[in-house]
Structures are given as C-alpha cells and as structure tokens.
Amino acid sequence: MTAPTVARSHIETEAYEPFEVNGTPCGELHALRTTSSGTGALFAGLWRHPAGQLDYVFPADETFHMRKRHPAAYAARARGGPPLVTGGF
Known about the structure:
Elements: E1 17-21, E2 24-33, E3 44-48, E4 74-77, E5 83-86
C-alpha cells in the first residue's frame, strides 16, 4: 500500500497572487490545492479581499470560513434565495 501524499503550504504575504474572475479583480488568493485526486474537484486556498462589496456568483458549491473581517455585516445570497447575513465580530 502506498502512503498518501500531504500537501504543505506556507502562508506568507508574498505567496498571495491577484485573483480575477472574468477580468474583474476579486482580491488575492494563496492556492493550497489546485488539482483533484479523483472524481469531482476539491480546490482549497486562502483568499483575502479589502472591505467593500464584491458581486460574485459562485460557480459551484463553496465552503468558506471567515478569519478576520470588517465589523460591518456580511451578506451572501444563494441563487434565488434570501440573503444570509452575519453580524460583525
């Protein structure tokens, strides 16, 4: 049996690269995983964006965890659904 491979990454400021969607700047991304190991896809990364509005339609299922943010509320909307709003922390 072969041992599984483990991806390693160091999170350094200079490791972030500009992230664009259809030519529109959408913050910066530090990719941790950009390949799939089977059917489907699982990409992972750290993304940062300055405070402000960003209109972005997620092309697939997305999971995210906020580490730090502006104290104002954050809102996301599922296609056709009501906004999901969180308060500041």
